[in-house]
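Journal club side-thread
Mid-discussion, someone asked how the predicted structure for our own chain would compare to the paper's figures. Pasting it here so we can look after the session.
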Amino acid sequence: MSLQAKNDRVAYADWIRLIAILMVVLIHTASPIFNTAAVTGGDFAVSALLDGIAHAGVPLFVMVSGVFLLDERRPMTVRRAITRYALPLVGLFFFWSVLYAAANKIAVPLLFENAAFSGAMARDFAVAVLEGAYHMWYLPMMAGLYLITPLLRTFVKKDTMRLAWYFLAVVFVVRFVLPTGIRLVTACFGYDFSAAYDGFNLLDGWEYPAYYVAGWAIANVHPAVRVRRLVYAVGILALALLVGLTGWLSALEGTPVKELMEQKSLFCCLYAVALFAVFAWEGQDLRACPLLTRLSALSFGVYIVHVEIQQLYKQFIPFTGGALGYILVQWLAVTVVSFLAAWVLSLIPLVKRSVRA
């Protein structure tokens, strides 16, 4: 989910974008049930499974962006990183934040809650513009990645591949292995080593640059069949552990525990990397088709609009039980309507640039 509309279409990358946006919509469909269901019930188990499967979505988007923007053949100066990539995302963040804030903080209270315009309403609007909708965090995060891309490009090169792998190894241990290991040790033995880990917080948030570089690195290596199969097997095992240990931790603590699903979880990392690798290594012969290209190009628009469509859906059809059917039906309906909405917006001259990937 990025803004490089003019790059040559790569079929496997289009497939990754399409799968990733389906996962993101599924996260926002399953997570509310996961967060509120009783941890011993069937609704919780179903939502944990679907939520866990979907949590590779954001890492997939970041990795596929790395494939293109870290490509040595693509010009990337500091000025280009700022003006062509980072600033447009910042502009989109505020454009959509203003629209969402106007709808949710002013229009809805005035039209449906019989509220009168007030200073408090104006303050709520201003705060909402600055904070953005909850799913909009992705835009400033990607803007940050674009800003550091010229720095990453100094060592993310084919002739300095070892430095790129060294970077990935350091971040992998510090941001994925250690936090996940400490969390599991704490759960099993009651010893909390998080204070000792705080010294490594210099790399807090660096899981996203790691995914960014990993996408480029995976796309530029071609390992033997046995290595590829090992990576895929580890990914399947990681997904099983992600879901299973999430259920175990939640039952142990009596409340939903989502840490092992998050992008900085070791298990989410291994699962997302393996899924990306399947397409990057086995999908080289995939061919682009107009429908796939179009759907992939609309993925950014779907990301932007699907949350509001989801809110409307839940207003009219609230969850009353039966998580599997409710999640799948809502996911399908919201996905279809979101693609249609993104397509319509892409036809409007003054708005189309805000939903184009």
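Post-session note: The chain has 14 helices and no strands.
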